[in-house]
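On clarity, I found the account of how folds are encoded harder to follow than it need be. Since the whole study asks how a given chain folds, the encoding of that fold should be made plain. For the editor and my fellow referees, an illustration may be useful. An entry of this sort, consisting of the sequence and the corresponding backbone structure tokens, reads as follows:

:::
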Amino acid sequence: MKNVGINGYGTIGKRVADAVSCQDDMQIVGVTKRTPDFEAYLAVEKGFPLYISAPEREGLFEEAGIKVTGTIDDLYSKIDVMVDCTPGGIGAKNKEVYDDMGVKGIFQGGEKHEQIGKSFNSFSNYKDNLGADFVRVVSCNTTGLCRTLKPIDDLCGIKKVRAVMVRRGADPGQIKSGPINAIVPNPPTVPSHHGPDVQTVMYDLDITTIALLVPTTLMHQHNLMVELETPPALDDVIDTLEATPRVLLVEAEKGLGSTAEIMEYARDLGRPRSDLNEIAVWKESLNIKDGELFYMQAIHQESDVVPENVDCIRAMLEMEDDPAKSIEKTNKNMGIN
């Protein structure tokens, strides 16, 4: 049983904590918070030992009546790996601390690949991260791209990918982000950073991406155009994606024609927080024309990277050297496809 710490019990951190807790080969021994908010209260109610990431703020937790186990300095000696879920840019600074404390660290997609040194995707480069000390799980958008592009590449080879990323303006719980009434090129330059990010785990893929922000909080949406090396029958592509773990083919004609309806479906599944860890691919969008595959997919940005974090723990701690076995184990314990 491996001991895991979560630094930053927020949007991603609380989901990773739950995902780790339902595995039978690892456990949460502590989570950290900087602010005594509702998430800190819930962490304690769930039975997670709570540590303060900013020791000078200990008085705020006392005033709020939130029981803490100690400060983050007390947590390091109890863990085999720290999953850093702090805001983007903070994790890279924390890496130096983890290194000094002799603790392995997993970081999220908000950090730069160059600052961490290695990036991770369960399907693309699991084995390259076996035993690594510091690894970055790629972003929600990059995870979504890899989930569907890797099996297609394995099936028939990919010459080139072009993708348009329609990104949500903010997560549902955020109140300081936007846009409210605009479509914003993000960035206005081409290409966007998503293509190079994919190349940190699918090293030789020729991919160009552009992105824009829209006034929604529910999901990201991708529009892909994929030039194939050896174009297969469309049914072979459909069969491949249907057989791929963490990919879900949805049909507009069955009432799943929008991100809103997909998230309503996720709510009806009864999962914690209504999360959809799978990448939803619209079956009707799949089409091959002149050797080029077209399709559209939706990404629940709050949850698709969560099972990847669990797999990353296994790879870094060398608990399982076969990515397929780790993926299967994670999925089974989390109750996802």
